[in-house]
Amino acid sequence: MGATYLIIEDSLSERANVVHINNAGLNPEIVLRKYQVNSAQLYGSGGHTGHQVSPRTIRLVASGQLDNPPMITSTYNLGNTDEAVAQVAKRVDGKAFVQMRKAKKVAGV
Fold this sequence. Notes:
- It contains 4 helices and 4 strands, in the order H-E-H-E-H-E-H-E.
- Helices cover about 30% and strands about 20% of the residues.
- The mean pLDDT is about 80.
């Protein structure tokens, strides 16, 4: 989770909105000053706890206000799903994406 927030904080635009949805039980290490100087907003939820979190997040993605590709830090072919699950279990990446076609290398990873 820590590596993910470093990327997010280094790419904050003015008046950015960051949505943190997590049930891992760990507190992310965030640098509040970066949010303050960019007038950014940080919203959080404990995951699937109600309050229409999932539909609201889907609407943010659909409207282009939440850009998903930068969150995907690893991609795996379907045949490498075990490797993907092992990497995600380490909790060092943002999101791993398993796809049925040939995986593309994510820039900067």
